[in-house]
Specification:
5-stranded mixed β-sheet, Aspartate Aminotransferase, domain 2, 2 domains, globular, Aspartate Aminotransferase, domain 1, 7-stranded mixed β-sheet, alpha/beta, 41% helix, 13% strand, 17 helices
């Protein structure tokens, strides 16, 4: 029997512990594991047998989270990491060689843009070509013989841009390259990119998957749907004999799970960004209520966006759930259960009015996170996207008057009341100016 999403969010990857009968997933707070004998140890070290060796590579608590995420996203395997940025690092290490290129959406989370624009080329010789992924012709034209992947967010942070995943997947397929989609903002409850042709899905599990601001983490879900054999010359890390395991070939040994196994055996082993089992435990607890929370998140976000759109102190609202939004039709296609809980709006009066609004909010917490049960606020231009040039900020929709909201699951009347009094305070600043 195929179980529904909410059931898998609670049960996938775990049955009650046979030794103790524990109903909840235990926290395996151990760094290493006892082998049965010398041959068992040798086989596990050589990847001839699956099993726990050392918690930098695998951990039973982490493994449950990985199986659960693979189930929810529709992948063949997953790897959890210390952060979302660590997940990106592992994927690029597996797929991109020094001197090679990748296509990246112009509208990405500011920290990702900085990683791609500065750290990757300087430290690893991986080079991004930033393209407006809404322009599919521009994406096609940007592909060169050295291009190894296309990278976009299903729902962009903070601009609310929804990527045409199916369109990008066709371009990637025609070019024989990998499509990587960051699904953090939507979560697998609202969008499942693999079903639209994506090959790899990434998450910052710190956000909606954890859901209560208690655990850091990242995840890579391998869709198992890329033909590594057909394009073997492009991806030598997965398709050529690897020196770390005496010439083992990940594709020959693990088939469509080649990337998932590589992310553990090479990524975690050699680079080391392992997720803490305690953080995996906290994230598993969060995922149990993902569907329930996301329903309330998007319900509140929709009502709040509609209220803001009618407010006299608001210049504009960028939420794909609104019929007036450019991405409304795409939201109905890719996010039929709702357009997410994070969006931006512009305050009349510019930067000073925006600052006054943020300073006067009482229910909203101002912090650098999204996806919490609590409502959160930040001014992207001076914080999350502050390292970008003014030209780049404008291109991605991060304007001086823009406020980013991550709408929580509190009572919507209280959320509106808090914004209303803060907007009134901002109006006085705008009037004085």
């Amino acid at each position: 029997m195929t179980q529904k999403f909410d059931t898998r969010a609670i049960h996938a990857g775990y049955s009650p512990d046979a030794a103790t009968g524990a109903r909840q997933v235990p926290i395996y707070q151990t760094s290493a594991y006892v082998f049965d004998d010398a041959q068992d140890a040798a086989d596990k070290f050589a990847l001839k047998k699956f099993g726990n060796v050392y918690s930098r590579l695998t951990n039973p608590t982490n493994s449950v989270l990985e199986e659960r995420l693979a189930s929810l996203e529709g992948g063949v395997g997953a790897t959890v990491t210390a952060s979302g940025h660590a997940a990106q690092l592992l994927v690029f290490q597996a797929l991109v060689q020094p001197g090679e290129r990748f296509i990246a959406s112009k509208r990405l989370y500011g920290g990702t843009t900085d990683q791609f624009q500065n750290t990757f080329p300087m430290s690893f010789d991986w080079h991004a070509d930033f393209v407006d992924v809404d322009d599919l012709d521009a994406v096609k034209k940007a592909i060169t013989p050295k291009t190894k992947l296309i990278y976009a967010e299903s729902l962009a942070n903070p601009g609310g841009v929804i990527s045409d995943i199916e369109g990008l997947a066709k371009i990637a397929a025609d070019a024989g390259i990998v499509l990587v989609i960051d699904n953090t903002m939507a979560s697998p409850y609202l969008c499942r990119p693999i079903e639209w042709g994506a090959h790899v899905v990434l998450h910052s599990t710190t956000k909606f998957l954890n859901g209560n601001c208690t655990a850091m983490g990242g995840a890579i879900i391998d869709g198992g749907n890329f033909d590594w054999k057909k394009h073997a010359a492009k991806y030598p890390e997965l398709t050529k004999p690897h020196p770390s395991y005496n010439g083992l070939n990940f594709l020959e040994s693990f088939g469509n799970m080649a990337l998932a196994v590589h992310n553990h055996a090479i990524g975690l082993r050699a680079l080391g960004p392992t997720q803490s089992p305690f953080h995996s435990f906290l994230t598993l607890n969060g995922i149990e209520t993902l569907g329930v929370r996301m329903d309330r998140h998007v319900q509140n976000a929709q009502k709040l966006a509609e209220w803001l759109e009618a407010h006299p102190q608001v210049e504009w609202v960028n939420y794909a759930g609104l019929p007036s939004n450019t991405y409304h039709a795409r939201a109905k296609k890719y996010l039929p259960k709702g357009a997410g809980a994070v969006f931006t709006f512009g305050v009349k009066g510019g930067f000073e009015a925006a600052k006054t609004l943020v300073d006067n909010l009482q229910l909203f917490s101002m912090l650098a996170n999204i996806g919490d049960t609590r409502s959160l606020v930040i001014h992207p231009s001076s914080t999350t996207h502050g390292q970008l040039s003014e030209v780049h900020k404008k291109a991605v929709g991060v304007l001086p008057e823009a406020i980013r909201l991550s709408v929580g699951i509190e009572d919507i009347a209280d959320i509106i009341a808090d914004l209303d009094q803060a907007l009134n305070a901002a109006a006085k600043v705008a009037k004085a100016a």
